[in-house]
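Q: Predict the bound structure with coenzyme a persulfide.
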Amino acid sequence: MPDIMLTEEELMLKSAIRDFAEREVAPRAMEIDQEERFSFENFHAMGKLGLFGMTLDPKYGGSAGGIKPVVVVAEELARVCASTSNAFVVQTGLAGYPMNQFGNEKQKARWLPGLISGEKVGAYCLTEPGNGSDAAAASTIAKKVSGGYVLNGSKTFITHGTIGDVLIVFATMDMALKHRGFVALVLEKGMKGLTTQKITGKMGIRSSDTGTMFFDNVEVPEENRLGEEGQGFRIAMQTLDNSRVGIAAQALGIAQGSLDEALKYAKQRRAFGQAIADFQAIQFYLADMAMRVEASRLLTYQAAALKDAGQPYVKQASMAKAYASEAAVFCADRAVQIFGGYGYIRESKVERFYRDARITPIYEGTSEIQRIVIARHLLQE
Ligand code: COS
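A: Predicted complex:
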């Protein structure tokens, strides 16, 4: 374990979160997955522990730390329940972070305390039915009117889309301007003209709330605009840069969880008169998994450490996200293989890991988008 990369404090945090995850999150992970139910129990417990404010402004209840401890938490949660890790990463990285970075004092005072305590659920709304990877092609329109904006359009695949209280929505003021026409607006649950619909039947992260939202002449006051008109795309991208480190950690957690389960099982399960761990074929699987877990962890820690040191980290965040998510898919697949038939049924953890892993190379920028970001950096350097 390259825990040599963690400080004493981070090691203590890791152990405390592992304990919390094993004690409170793991026991209900299977049930909430099968019921496709968002766990407010888990969410409020994380709020009480102060996890949502780890990097945020202390004036509003945060603890202004770095992203490296966030990575530690996201990994430990995902090691037992990816959906719970996702709720954490989205609340702190996709809602809290842009509010903290780009909100003015009035906005921060209004929305950060609830996002940090967990009383309010946050969401980041960029993807639309007609565009995902090509984020600049958004067609949700914010029409400027006296005192604010009128919003029309739709967003989809939004984490916390139906339960979100504070929604950061990216819209265009003029599609012809592409990314330069973007504006970031904060909407609140209950606004007139805002409706949502839950997306059910997901393959994995089934207890993560995912929704589609519809904006029908939603009136958004000017004071709800984050940053300036035209800055919305930059806010969206910088937020994703940061949260991709969290998703890398989430993928790492799924990979580690898969390895842990596979190791345990391989030592117990017997075939042909010996534990299956004694067969070289199984040992090679385990070794391949362990290499990917550790490489993912190093890339993820590196991206986090660079960000915390105030150094460029976007290329490394994309590398960590792409690599760790592909490692999660690989490790969960190998774990199912080692479990055989027992890995193919709902009662087994690795069956859930296999389904949960599959979203990680897709959301927060597909693996293909990460490679575009990486290659652009390489070519510019
Ligand atoms: N930070 C700050 N600014 C950034 C940025 C970043 N990480 N990435 C791009 N920008 C800026 C560029 O500097 C450029 O600004 P100027 O025109 O002022 O120079 C502008 O944004 C447009 O950049 P670019 O030309 O690179 O935009 P593209 O349309 O080519 O898109 C990608 C860039 C593909 C990287 C972007 O659309 C993307 O990340 N897509 C994936 C979206 C995603 O992750 N969706 C998941 C949603 S969350 S579930």
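A: The chain has three domains: 3-120, 123-230, 234-380.
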